[in-house]
Amino acid sequence: MAGYRVPHPEKPHIQRHARKQTLTARVVGFVLMWSIIGVVALTANRAIPREHLPWKTLALVDPIGAATKIKAARTGEDPAACREVLQQGGVEFLEVAPRASGFCDIHDAVRMEAGMAPLSPRDAPMTCKQALAVSIWERQVVQQAAFDAFGQAVVGIDHYGSYACRRMYGQDDAPVSEHASANALDVAAFRLADGTVVSVQKDWTDAGQKGQFLHAVRDGACKVFLTTLSPDYNDAHHDHFHLDMGGLTKCA
Ligand SMILES: [Zn+2]
């Protein structure tokens, strides 16, 4: 009986057909995958707040988000972009003349004049990157925490200095401090509108609102500054928060 002959799978025209089908399936799969990725990315770009998206520009009005720290560090590296964000956020500042001496070096620095709770002492030169981080932290962390804890604003921030030509902990063999390039700020206390002073030294261990406020302010700083050191870190920081935008990421 003459029966149907099953084509041999190894015949060349069958192999070509199979290869063509496989290639078509791969191309369709590839296009489909990238279409889905594109739609998801576009939807996320519109739906997710910009403080969580590292590719969107930084603004001082943005709440703290997942991308705040990386955007502050990146924007701060660009002198023009850094100043633009400060200006658009209503922060007034003066330019600080560059100076260098030994391992100490101030460049791309500003001195904040208005647009945030005044620093005391007023003369606190900071790299634009550090000034930007301080501005974000003051507006989105410190003021928010003060309203949450005390129902009032912070009207002054006392500090122990931003620029100091020294090595870490003042030791001769230690690495150069971020203070030596005005890339840091040592915050000692916060002054509230009603005159109340909340001090890191006195109130860090307070079980009440002052202690809660200071811990909220430290935790928020960790989301903005590359390095945040509090009394939890060591005895050298028992009376201040060290905040800096240097290379090391540390939160303690
Ligand atoms: Zn310090």
Describe the protein's architecture and organization.
With 252 residues, the chain is an alpha+beta fold. 38% of the residues lie in helices and 20% in strands. The chain has six helices and twelve strands. The strands form three sheets. Strands 5, 7, 8, 9, 10, 11 and 12 form a seven-stranded mixed β-sheet that branches. Helix 2 (68-76) runs antiparallel to helix 4 (128-150), helix 3 (79-88) packs parallel to helix 4 and helix 4 packs antiparallel against helix 6. 34% of the residues are buried. Bound molecules: zinc ion. Residues 179, 184, 186, 242 line the site of zinc ion.
Low-confidence stretches: none
From the alpha carbons, calculate the radius of gyration and give it in angstroms. Answer: 27 Å
Q: What is the residue-averaged pLDDT?
A: 93
Q: Give me the oligomer status.
A: single chain
Main sheet makeup = 7 strands, mixed
How many helices in DSSP terms? 6
**Proportion of helical residues:** 25-40%
N-to-C CA distance: 88 Å
Given the helix and strand composition, which structural class is it? alpha+beta
* Count of distinct strands: 12
Order of helices and strands: HHHEEEEEEHEEEHHEEE
Shape: elongated
Proportion in β-strands: 15-25%
Bound molecules: zinc ion
